[in-house]
Amino acid sequence: MGAWGFDVFENDTACDYAAEVAEGSDLSGIEGKLDHILRIGTAYPKAPDAEEALAAADILARLQVRFGQQNAYTDGIDRWVRDLKVKPSKELVEKARRSIARILTDPSELLGLWRESEDFDSWKSCVQGLSNRL
Predict the structure, then answer these.
(1) In terms of C-beta distances under 8 Å and separation of at least 24 residues, what long-range contacts does 112-120 make, across chains too?
(2) Contact (CB, 8 A) for 117 and 123
(3) What are the C-alpha distances in Å from 16 to residues 2, 45, 64, 133?
(4) The pLDDT of residue 7 is above 60
(5) Domains in the chain: boundaries
(6) What is residue 21's three-state secondary structure?
(7) Residue 89 gets which letter from DSSP?
(8) 75 to each of 7, 78, 125, how far by Cα in Å?
(9) CA distance 62 to 83
(10) How far apart are the first and last CA of the chain?
(11) Helix (H) or strand (E) holding 8
(12) Which of 27, 74, 92, 134 has its CB surrounded by the most CB atoms within 10 Å?
């Protein structure tokens, strides 16, 4: 796991995904990422897919002016959010909430990896906080 912290954007995968989103001009990539997690159903979502879905959900929260942590890692996506000035639909926000719930439910590789870490409670609290920001 290429993480240096428990926040959504404190891993390489989420930062790379946010940079990809910031190159676009709509929310289609975000919806596609959430749909992917939801299509997995009760199967085993891989950690990188889950990290990208959490980043997608966080971006949706930011589009609703419900920013989480803001720092050098989020600077590019924060500028994109301010420039885009789009409000996500209620349906898209609900997909994000369901994606988060799926990631926090076994079997889930990311959940398992964080369970093995001493920062599990902090990570889980951060992810639940993201769901609340939506």
Answers:
(1) 113/1, 113/47, 114/6, 119/5, 119/6
(2) yes
(3) 12, 19, 22, 22
(4) yes
(5) 12-133
(6) helix
(7) P
(8) 15, 5, 23
(9) 12
(10) 26
(11) none
(12) 74
User: What's the pLDDT at 1?
Assistant: 53
pTM here? Answer: 0.97
**What are residue 11's DSSP bridge partners?**
3
- If we measure between CA atoms, which residue out of 30, 33, 2, 34 comes closest to residue 15? 2
Give pLDDT tens digits for 77-131: 999 999 998 999 999 999 999 999 999 999 999 999 999 999 999 999 999 999 9
The mean per-residue pLDDT over the stretch 2-21 comes to 94
Query: How many whole angstroms separate alpha carbon 93 and alpha carbon 100?
Result: 11
Q: How far apart are CA 16 and CA 22, in angstroms?
A: 10
Q: What is the pLDDT of residues 31-69, one digit of tens each?
A: 999 999 999 989 999 999 999 999 999 999 999 999 999
Name the 3-class secondary structure at 87: coil
Assigned token pair, 32 = 């596609």
Secondary structure letter of residue 41 according to DSSP = T
